[in-house]
Amino acid sequence: MNFEAIRAIYTFEMARFFRTLAQSFISPVLSTSLYFVVFGTAIGSRIDSVEGVSYGAFIVPGLVMLSVMTQAISNASFGIYFPKFIGTIYELLSAPVNFIEIVIGYVGAAATKSLFIGLVILATSFLFVDITIAHPFAMLAFLVLTCLSFALMGFIIGIWAGNFEQLQLIPLLIVTPLVFLGGSFYSITMLPPIWQQISYFNPVVYLISGFRWSFFGQADVPIAVSLLAIGGFTTLCLAIIWWIFKTGWRIRD
Amino acid sequence: MSSIVSIKGLTKRYASGFEALKGVDLDIEEGEVLALLGPNGAGKTTLISTICGITTATGGSITVGGHDHREAYRKARGLIGLVPQEINLEPFEQVQNTVRFSRGLFGKPRNDAYIAELLETLSLGDKATSQIRELSGGMKRRVLIAKALAHEPRVLFLDEPTAGVDVELRNGMWETVDKLRQQGVTIILTTHYIEEAEAIADRVAVISKGQILLVEEKDSLMARMGQKQLTVELTAPIEAIPDALARPGLELSADKASLIYTYDSTAERKGITALLTDLPAAGLQLRDLQTSQSSLEEIFVSLVHQGDAA
Question: Taking CB atoms and an 8 Å cut-off, how many pairs form between chains A and B?
Answer without folding.
Answer: 79
